[in-house]
Amino acid sequence: MSKEFKYEVREEDIAKRVPNKHGSPAMRVNDPNESDEKKKKKMEILRKLTELESRRGIAKFDSVEEMQILIENYFQDCVDLELRPTIRGLASALGTVYNTLNDWERGSRDAQLGSGCSVLIKKSKQFISEYDELLALENIDNPVLFMFRAKNYYGMKDTQDIQISPNTPLGDQLTPEEIAKRLPQDIPVDVDCIE
Asked: In the chain, is it the N or the C terminus that has fewer CB atoms within a 10 Å radius of its CB?
């Protein structure tokens, strides 16, 4: 789906519209401490994202098959424009937002499209996750970036299994009187507080 006009984004135009002299350095277009190479990369990504957005119309679909076509078009556009596919980009390609996409994945659109909608979104998100994982494994991306994305977008989490086994240092056969005698010996004494 493409529009009849295309946008051209030039750095000068953006600098005129967004004169961010205060606030986050990440939001500044003309940061004096930023290298020319980094400025060019940022503008190239913005140009590609704008091109990607101009290829989209208003996404409407009434079947899982139509939804699949929109998703395939999104991934192909990412390849054509050399942009990394993202979950938020996927949501945008489907004419929705991130939270709604997650709702659809959990089945909130099943009444209209059946469970195929949920399955298709899960498979698409799995593809994006696999791509990110491969970039980290091949040392193209910092593995910490993948760990962040995996925990925040792909449902992974750090877990630690702790085994607790009963251990009775007082023994099973002691009487309450014997336990009372041992208690003063087992209470730690703070040496710094002894007067």
From this structure: C
The total of other beta-carbon atoms located within 10 Å of residue 48's CB is: 18
b/e 150-164 (16+ beta carbons within 10 angstroms → b): beebbeeeeeeeeee
C-alpha span between 110 and 62 (Å, rounded): 12
Instruction: Give whole-number Cα distances, 194 to 104, 106, 128, 183, in Å.
Output: 65, 61, 62, 19
Write out the two tokens for 182.
């041992």
Tell me the mean pLDDT per 10 residues along the chain, length 195: 44 52 51 80 86 75 88 92 92 89 84 82 94 91 88 84 70 76 73 63
pTM for the model stands at 0.61
Helices within the chain (DSSP H only):
11-17, 36-55, 64-81, 87-93, 98-105, 110-113, 116-137, 143-153, 176-186
Question: Could you give the CA distance from residue 179 to residue 167 in angstroms, rounded to a whole number?
Answer: 15
C-alpha closest to that of 170 among 158, 189, 160, 185: 185
Nearest to 67 by CA among 114, 112, 117: 117
